[in-house]
Amino acid sequence: MTPKEHFASRVLAWFDQHGRKHLPWQQNKTPYRVWISEIMLQQTQVMTVIPYYERFMARFPDVFALADAPQDDVLAHWSGLGYYARARNMHKAAQVLVNDWNGEFPASQEGVCELPGIGRSTAAAILSISRGEPLAILDGNVKRVLGRFHAVPTWPGERKTEAAMWQLAESYTPTDRAGDYTQAMMDLGATLCTRSKPSCERCPVQDDCDALASGAPTDFPKSKPKKPAKPVRATQMLVLLDTHQETPQVLLEKRPATGIWGGLWSLPELSLEDDLVQLTEQRLPVQVQSVTSLSSFRHTFSHYHLDIVPYQLDVKATQAVSEEQKYQWFSLEHAYELGLPAPVRTILESAQGQSGTQTLLEL
């Protein structure tokens, strides 16, 4: 048995006995279902993804339903998962699949990689898990397993190191049971070969692991160089609530298609230095009746911290808004059905609960 076959056979034997086989996306493994799970699982834990995946598949059971849906609906079902470019690209890719491929995934890895938001490793995962194609993946879990098995002393994000690890991944990927092997490698990294406190004593390839032999398995592969401390930004977020209408309405702002929270509905914002009442009335079609302070909190993005200082403003609309404008009035019930960033949802819930609040001004 070659080293490649020996490695794969041990990993598959472990998977047969200990691997995860009952996750929602592991049932009826079509390319579409695998694709949705792979995108959701990027930078997100399995237990977090499961309820989102189940709701998403109930609403968009196939690529035609996803392609035909309004983007707002797609983003609403993604709300809370973060990294919203994933959902926007998924929606675009579904439309490409329907318009150019009659709803079928391309047969080649290169063809799948041409779809928005799908890279080499994700394309390989889709085709290997759903169709059994012998294609190597190299996600974070696989990088960690192979990086420790070979005691890679450099950071996998470096181009030279990543290229070498792709070669390793391809050299170990078996021709038979490629889909199970792909899932097994992801499971191995997620459940045993974890970032800290790996369970080396239960690992199926421990006998040949160079990192374990070194006595310091968590030293491999080298960690990503530390970044400088994240900068901190601050903003005032405004819950503009008009209770003078038959059903109380909240004013929301449609974010630009790209950038942070792209395409989602959010709350109007002011800088901390802005005069809350004066600038609100200047910029928005409202007359402010009273201002109530809500609990401040910090939300962290990948590149910076955002300190959010929210206020509820009881207002009266002074003019109508058209559907073409970026500001729209929604009932609170309808607002919760939109694609909302998680902090905005939290603020709206706080405004309804009115806990920890203080009325600052009545006009």
From TrEMBL:
Keyword Iron among record annotations: yes
EC numbers, comma separated: 3.2.2.31
Keywords: 4Fe-4S, DNA damage, DNA repair, Glycosidase, Hydrolase, Iron, Iron-sulfur, Metal-binding
Domain (HhH-GPD): residue spans on this chain: 40-191
Xref: Pfam families: EndIII_4Fe-2S (PF10576), HHH (PF00633), HhH-GPD (PF00730), NUDIX_4 (PF14815)
Catalytic activity: Hydrolyzes free adenine bases from 7,8-dihydro-8-oxoguanine:adenine mismatched double-stranded DNA, leaving an apurinic site
Cofactor note as given: Binds 1 [4Fe-4S] cluster.
Top-level taxon of the source organism: Bacteria
Signal peptide: none
Cofactor(s) this protein requires: [4Fe-4S] cluster
GO molecular function per UniProt: purine-specific mismatch base pair DNA N-glycosylase activity
Enzymatic class: hydrolase
Function noted in UniProt: Adenine glycosylase active on G-A mispairs. MutY also corrects error-prone DNA synthesis past GO lesions which are due to the oxidatively damaged form of guanine: 7,8-dihydro-8-oxoguanine (8-oxo-dGTP).
PANTHER family cross-referenced by the UniProt entry: ADENINE DNA GLYCOSYLASE
UniProt similarity note: Belongs to the Nth/MutY family.
This protein's name: Adenine DNA glycosylase
